[in-house]
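Query protein
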Amino acid sequence: MNNNKLNLMGLEIPSILLPNNHLAMTNLEKWAVIACDQYTQDFDYWERVKTFTEDAPSTLNLIFPEVFLSQTHVSQRITDIHSTMGRYLKENVFSQPKHGFIYIERDTPYQQKRRGLVAAIDLEQYEWHPQARPLIRSTEGTVPERLPPRMDIRRGAPLELPHVLLLIDDDNDCLLPALGEHVKKNAPCYNTPLMMNSGYITGWFIETGGSEFSPILSLLTEKLDELYQRSLTRYENSGQPFLFAVGDGNHSLAAAKGIWEEIKANKEQSNLESHPCRYALVEIENIYDPAIQFEPIHRFVFGAGFDETVALLSELPDFTCRPVNTLQELSSSVNGQQTAANCFGVISQGKYALITTSAGGIATACLQPLLDAYAGDNPQLIDYIHDEDELFRLASQATAHKSAGILLPPVQKSGLFETVARFGPLPRKSFSMGHSIEKRFYMEARELK
């Protein structure tokens, strides 16, 4: 089948590597590890992962958990990751690559049957700069200073493992359920529980070379083309297509783009049209999937205690501050906010406060500029916490050092494409697709050399 139409829509059919299920030591529950940008303040989580996986091949040895990025020996760790990738390839830890897509269903402790499609995207049709309006667009502001270590990990790596999630604006939820109906007639290519009580995942391979499976490829192409054509007039009336929004992994995808730009700038490179680094492996999900819930990403401030953080937020328009007696009361107040304006919770040193402001819209739009001004040239003074319970855990330790948690209100996912199309990326870390435990687990890989 001619794939020109898929290519025009930014997709490439990848050659996917999966762990070799014929190896006696292969254990998929130990193989699959959560996205590297989770639990960034929880060393204990990653130590438990290390203990759980130490006797088996695991993607833990192929990724760089971001909790360790601030430590020394970063370069050596990257060298070790690249070396392990090469060793896994030589030792046949992977099966032979298969050309096609993978349809996924994921159960989590919070939601059931979240659907996805593993595919490769063309980085020529993606851009993260705020003024850009490409086919594949970033949903959050990208911080250039965060890219170098992530580019170092990808530069020269024999493999990539995806945790980037792309969203489609399929309000009728037609594409992924229809793919599932076709492909689930076959046996799955993997099927496993996920470590740390993170749920369950099943994947079905979609062959693209045989006539038996061509109806599935036709269905995929047809449905995506409908969304592509509709996007030409749905958002801006400007004739610029907007098919995919980066829902998770914005900085990882931006790093992949940066490496591709380096390769293009190298005059000695040939065959750029088919170079594997031109593409990035991702999972595509529908923003209207009932199993996808948007969660706020809370803030944790270092170097400022309770009073300093309240004073920092006092610059919000029509600022008010009310003391609150318990975390439960604070959580109920922030999560139960019914007006178009915003509210925040401050937690530190055993004190709690409810902050209200007349500023409407997405909460990070009014909050992030204040935090950026506070951090100045030290962005490490602000961390981004995905779960309310984790924020509370960190804030409970604030008596030992000057720090504070800022609890953000819920996020509505409707209108995301419209907002990004009209105004560009949202402030960074404006939302999370679910709780930390629901994030993508590394399973598939693709060769980059």
In short: The longest strand covers residues 98-107. The radius of gyration is 22 Å. The chain has a mean pLDDT of 92. The chain has 13 helices and 23 strands.
